[in-house]
Design brief:
The complex is a heterodimer of chains A (677) and B (208).
Chain A: H1 2-24, H2 27-32, H3 37-57, H4 61-80, H5 85-101, H6 108-121, H7 125-135, H8 142-158, H9 161-178, H10 183-194, H11 204-213, H12 217-245, H13 255-258, H14 264-270, H15 276-283, H16 291-320, H17 322-343, H18 347-361, H19 366-372, H20 375-386, H21 390-400, H22 403-407, H23 414-433, H24 436-464, H25 470-496, H26 501-544, H27 546-556, H28 561-575, H29 581-592, H30 603-619, H31 625-633, H32 640-663, H33 666-676
Chain B: H1 2-20, H2 22-38, H3 47-68, H4 84-119, H5 134-164, H6 179-185, H7 190-207
Helix pairs in contact in B: 1-3, 1-5, 2-3, 3-5, 4-5
Classes of the chains: A mainly alpha (677), B mainly alpha (208).
Chain lengths: 677, 208
């Protein structure tokens, strides 16, 4: 019965569009062969209506777009010059296709997709989930929280919703059901978490949007980072609140489930001291124990300490390096001076501003400056010298500084010592808390969580800080994926102890590479051919002047910016029901983007909203793909309705996140503005 | 008939899979280029062109392969609810109406496009003395030809389906979400899932 209803709904929708098409088609123009400009514009809109019908019928979208684009483009050309029309449309078509083939933004897609397939096949999700849920055992709703965190990390690295949801359905759902979790909560956490990879960079969606809208992918990545984290944090917050509020929905883990079996070495030493570090140091004195193993364990347990110390040393180097510090202070003061001059307020505010700005930029503030000169004096000196040009201020400033300070290392500023103190306190705390149990959990995290996290951060960091282009970072990330897959397979092969571990790893890795390349080829062909089709289609749409007509119509509505944003996001949300995100972006974004400047909306900001919005499309019943993937691997008494019900609160959170991002654009725009202005 | 269809499927698949190895080459090449530029301080001016060519060739040549595995994205709102016969009828009409003219136009236009490039032995102008670009432009009509051939196969498939009432089989290929493989990967068996049912039933009994 339900199926029938949906069919009826779809058919009636199509019928409405078709009737509208028949009524508005400029038949008269067709018959006498003369189409006016308005007729053509109307034809453009008809084309848009027809494409929606054709897509709903279920034909591969790329080719529908291509065929329709050629046909309507030909009509547009024919109305101008019938003799040249065929040649013109063929030229247009091949130019458009070639521009997709040689697109230097889209090239990152196959590389990121490849990286995703490799990481997925590296087979580390099991360890990742286990280590995370053990380390989060004390948090209320530990399993659900661990599920979301695992999903967030794994989905970010792979970006394949179906695979992440299926895998988590196989791993996390049984664990949660056994622990007595509410089915809806469990299903919601898995499906919502699995979709996070759409938003959190490096995501393919943002590349596709960037290529369509002509927005820098780098800025999109920088912008989507915090909204993605925010969404994940909201999910986690929701789960924790539910677990606190209704403990029977997410009962805490029993003591026995939190325990990790200790290896023999740790067991032997644990009787001597509760603290792993002290125990291991003591372990050297025990003759019966192999020294090498004790040393390895000690090294592992000291890793957090080592990394904290290394980080502090690096930061000390950066904070006190002479040239950098002087340069920045000069520039900052120049900036402060300019703002002081522009405002031309009372002398006192001019005096106070420069130091406060320095504090905001975190570089050499109070203490360092105070050692050389009082900040108030700097502020006074700067406006005086600023009048010629800012660089002159910088050099003048450098002169006023004690010559010794410019050559020697600048004393570390206060913020550094605060960070240093915090780091040391953290270090002590970590080592004090490092029990044998925690050491085991830490080792598990080291083998699963950290490699993936470091890889993601390296890829993202190098893109966002401008060290590498997205393409380069994607390629290196894919290479990292190969290494990761190889390393995990090697460990697995050694544990399996059947045959030679090295040869087995190589043959495994070959299989992984083969499968991943084939899948990558199919996925990239799917996305990029869609691009070929849509670029021909949107060229025809522009030729017909459909874009102009829409613009005129939208402007005639006299919407405010807020109304326009609400309307556009609502349309995208609705489109997310019948269409896939790729189709929405490549077909409909070219229509929305030209409207944005009219309403003073930044295309970058709009892109972030769209990315967040399209996440909900994966979770909105009845076509939420995530739900079907989960249903495919859950016990038979878990119904689709239960899964849908579980997804609803998470969908509400997404809408909340959308509202938050719109109200506080800084969540997304702060990082790109700081980095690229 | 079925063997002919499967043979053409196999050809498309073979070509697509052969070219899909380019992604490994692309990964290695860019990784090496990054290493060479930042560490060895020895950038190669041709790297950008080669990168683009590998990417373009990869996805263009995989088009027919993807079509043969029904991998091109399609709106699945209503399609999944149709009978196979209805599906095939719609597909048949749209293949003839949109696919064939569109792809034929692309192939034909691509042919002249490539021929012009061959005639002047065109080189890339991204960098000075860029690599020759005419082989790359040849990919366009070649990929179109592959798609046309595979499109014909799909049309025949539709006709068979309309006659027989069910879709003729396709060759198996790696799938993005292969549930059985994923189950094996994380060591979960069907029995384990079935056993979980008791928890579900228990919970549902408790809440009712």
């Amino acid at each position: 019965m339900k199926i029938r209803k949906e069919l009826w709904f779809g058919f009636s929708l199509m019928a409405i569009i078709l009737v509208a098409v028949l009524i508005f088609t400029p038949w008269a123009g067709f018959i006498d062969g003369h189409l006016s400009r308005d007729d053509l514009g109307a034809l453009g809109l008809l084309m848009l209506g027809l494409i929606v019908v054709a897509i709903m019928l279920g034909f591969p979208t790329a080719f529908t777009l291509m065929g329709m684009g050629v046909f309507f483009g030909w009509i547009a050309y024919r109305s101008v010059n019938p003799d040249l029309a065929v040649q013109q449309i063929l030229d247009l078509m091949v130019q458009r296709a070639y521009s997709v083939m040689s697109n230097d933004v889209l090239i990152a897609i196959p590389l990121f997709v490849f990286m995703g397939y490799l990481v997925e096949r590296a087979n580390l999700i099991e360890k990742l989930f286990k280590s995370l849920h053990l380390s989060l055992a004390r948090v209320p709703g530990a399993l659900a929280v661990a599920t979301i965190v695992t999903c967030a990390i794994f989905a970010t690295a792979t970006g394949i919703v179906g695979a992440v949801v299926t895998l988590m359905g196989l791993l996390a759902l049984p664990a949660m059901l056994r622990a007595g979790y509410n089915i809806k909560l469990a299903a919601g956490a898995i499906t919502a978490g699995g979709c996070l990879g759409i938003l959190i960079p490096p995501s393919v969606l943002l590349i596709v949007y960037g290529a369509t809208a002509g927005v820098s992918v780098v800025k999109l990545y920088a912008g989507a980072f915090f909204p993605g984290i925010m969404l994940a944090a909201l999910y986690v917050g929701y789960v924790i609140i539910v677990a606190k509020w209704k403990p029977h929905f997410a009962p805490p883990l029993s003591e026995s489930e939190r325990q990790v079996p200790l290896p023999p070495l740790s067991q032997a030493l644990s009787s001597r001291s509760g603290n792993a570090l002290a125990g291991l140091f003591g372990g050297f004195g025990v003759p019966s124990l192999p020294k090498r193993q004790v040393a390895t364990q000690l090294f592992v347990s000291l890793l957090p300490a080592i990394s904290i110390v290394a980080l502090l040393v690096l930061m000390y180097g950066a904070a006190t390096s002479p040239t950098a510090a002087v340069d920045t202070s000069g520039l900052v003061q120049a900036g402060g001076a300019i703002s002081a001059e522009e405002e031309t307020p009372a002398e006192s505010s001019g005096l106070q501003e420069p130091p406060s700005e320095q504090g905001g930029l975190q570089e050499p503030p109070q203490e360092g400056a105070a050692l050389q000169e009082p900040p108030a004096e700097l502020g006074q000196a700067a406006p005086a010298a600023a009048s010629p040009s800012p660089p002159a201020t910088a050099s003048a400033e450098a002169d006023t500084l004690p010559a010794a300070a410019a050559v020697e290392r600048v004393p570390a500023p206060t913020w550094y010592w605060i960070v240093f103190g915090l780091g040391m306190a953290g270090l002590l705390l970590v080592n004090w808390l490092m029990s044998w149990q925690r050491l085991e959990i830490f080792k598990m995290l080291l083998a699963s969580f950290f490699p993936l996290a470091i890889m993601i951060i390296a890829v993202l960091g190098s893109i966002v800080f401008g060290l590498a282009t997205p393409t380069e970072a994607a390629a290196v990330g894919a290479f990292g994926g190969i290494v990761l897959a190889g390393a995990y397979r090697y460990v697995a092969a050694r544990q399996a102890k059947s045959g030679n571990a090295v040869t087995r790893t190589i043959s495994d890795l070959g299989g992984i590479l083969k499968e991943s390349s084939f899948l990558t080829a199919k996925t990239s062909a799917m996305v990029c051919w869609l691009f070929v089709g849509s670029s021909i289609f949107s060229a025809a749409f522009a030729l017909l002047g459909g874009q102009e007509l829409i613009e005129r119509w939208v402007l005639s509505l006299g919407l405010t910016t807020l109304q326009f944003m609400l309307l556009s996001q609502f349309i995208i949300f609705i489109l997310g029901w019948p269409l896939e995100w790729t189709e929405i972006i490549v077909i409909f974004m070219p229509i929305f983007i030209p409207l944005l400047p009219k309403f003073g909306v930044d295309p970058l900001f709009f892109g972030l909203l769209v990315a967040l919005n399209l996440q909900t499309a994966f979770l909105s019943p009845p076509v939420a793909m995530a739900a079907f993937y989960l249903k495919g691997v859950s016990p038979k008494h878990v119904t689709l309705n239960q899964i849908f019900a579980g997804m609803l609160p998470f969908m509400a959170i997404q809408v909340l996140a959308l509202a938050l991002l719109y109200t506080f654009p800084g969540i997304g725009m702060w990082l790109p503005e700081v980095l690229y202005k | 008939m079925q063997t002919l269809l499967l043979t053409i499927d196999k050809i498309s698949t073979f070509i697509g899979q052969a070219f899909s190895w380019l992604i490994v080459a692309l990964t290695l090449m860019i990784s090496w280029e990054v290493f060479s530029r930042y560490v060895l301080d020895d950038p190669h001016p041709w790297a950008f062109d080669v990168m683009i060519m590998m990417y373009g060739t990869l996805f263009m040549m995989a088009g027919a392969y993807t079509l043969s595995k029904a991998g091109h994205v399609r709106g699945d709102v209503l399609y999944g609810f149709f009978e196979p016969r209805t599906q095939a009828t719609i597909d048949l009409i749209l293949f003839v109406l949109f696919f064939m003219p569109g792809v034929f136009a692309l192939t034909y236009a691509g042919y002249t496009f490539a021929a012009e490039s061959w005639a002047i032995r065109e080189h890339s102008n991204v960098t000075a003395e860029g690599p020759p670009i005419y082989p790359f432009k040849t990919i366009l009509p070649l990929a179109g030809l592959g798609l046309l051939l595979q499109g014909l196969v799909e049309i025949i498939r539709c006709v068979i389906c309309i006659k027989q009432g069910e879709w003729p089989s396709r060759e198996h290929d790696v799938e993005e979400v292969d549930v059985d493989k994923l189950k094996e990967m994380v060591h979960v068996k069907d029995d384990d899932i079935a056993k979980l049912d008791q928890f579900v039933v228990q919970q549902q009994g408790g809440t009712k």
